[in-house]
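Q: What residues go here?
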């Protein structure tokens, strides 16, 4: 197992009280596999990623408990020097907006070369050559390495960001909604590129998204997050063919169906909970059509409904289908 997150909790201090962004979250990613990390805006996806990278701003953020085991090492206990080696060298992150990820005053070639110089034993000339090769791998001519970010389109800038992330052949890439700012055609190209590079480099990926279409296109496994906790985890095929948690079912039912002639989309009743005042018991119970009295009193455990398919819901206590 490449990455294992155990009972991770992260909170932010605010004037209105503590914002419980991540709550006893458990997650795992195996080598060479792509995990879809799915949930509504504000569910805790990006906060979890920043926690793995040890980039939670403190203050106001704080990791209050848990472990982040990467290749057996707990990153939460690693020194800052060790984390500098991990970031970019072993774990790389692709952010949502490529324009804010790139330095507008530095050529794209120099930005890729900078990452290579940080983590590889090469000189500037070799780093520049390698930067050109990385651009070629993501479909950009090496001759453009002397150009600046504003000279590239949105899709091209995202390719540059991917080139930077892959420059040192990391074992894990965390992609935080990397196609959100792109139109559908360019999104498809970027996703196809990421699939090709995954097979070439055998890099594990956490794909953070709220788009179930993106998950179906690129992922091997899926973790569904709600109010800072994982509510369902399964392989892509198992989750799409056999979703179990009422929240997961609500997400699938809210997707438009071209063959369905109904006038209105199905919606999940209510609103996501206020993270400064989470409900007792299961966080989803105020919106759940299957809620039972126990749901408001106790937090459900994680139950195996099949090998590799886990659900955090009292409906499946004892592991029954």
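A:
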């Amino acid at each position: 197992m490449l990455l294992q997150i155990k009972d991770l909790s992260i909170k932010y201090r605010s004037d209105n009280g503590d914002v419980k962004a991540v709550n006893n979250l458990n997650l795992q990613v195996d080598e060479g596999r792509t995990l879809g990390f799915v949930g509504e805006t504000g569910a805790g996806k990006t906060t979890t990623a920043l926690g793995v990278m040890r980039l939670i701003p403190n203050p106001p953020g704080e990791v209050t408990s848990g472990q982040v085991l990467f290749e057996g090492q707990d990153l939460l206990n690693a020194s800052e020097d060790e984390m500098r080696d991990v970031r970019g060298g072993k774990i790389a992150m692709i952010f949502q907006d490529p324009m804010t990820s790139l330095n507008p005053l530095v050529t794209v070639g120099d930005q890729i070369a900078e990452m290579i110089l940080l983590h590889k034993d090469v000189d500037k000339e070799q780093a520049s050559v390698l930067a050109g090769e990385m651009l070629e791998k993501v479909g950009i001519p090496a001759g453009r390495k002397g150009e600046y970010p504003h000279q590239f389109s949105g899709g091209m800038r995202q390719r540059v960001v991917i080139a930077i992330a892959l420059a040192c052949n990391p074992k894990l890439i965390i992609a935080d909604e990397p196609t959100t700012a792109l139109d559908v055609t360019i999104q498809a190209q970027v996703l196809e590129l990421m699939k090709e590079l995954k097979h070439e480099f055998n890099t594990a990926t956490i794909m953070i998204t709220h788009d179930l279409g993106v998950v179906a296109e690129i992922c091997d496994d899926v973790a569904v997050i709600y109010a800072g906790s994982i509510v369902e985890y399964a392989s892509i095929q198992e989750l799409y063919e056999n979703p179990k948690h009422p929240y997961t079912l609500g997400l699938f039912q809210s997707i438009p169906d071209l063959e369905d002639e109904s006038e209105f989309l199905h919606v999940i009743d209510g609103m996501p909970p206020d993270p400064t005042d989470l409900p007792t018991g299961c966080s989803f119970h105020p919106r759940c059509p299957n809620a039972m009295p126990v749901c408001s009193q106790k937090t459900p455990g994680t139950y195996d409904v099949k090998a590799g398919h886990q659900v955090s819901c009292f409906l499946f206590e004892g592991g029954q289908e």
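A: Context that may help when evaluating the design: DSSP finds ten helices and twelve strands in the chain. The radius of gyration is 21 Å.
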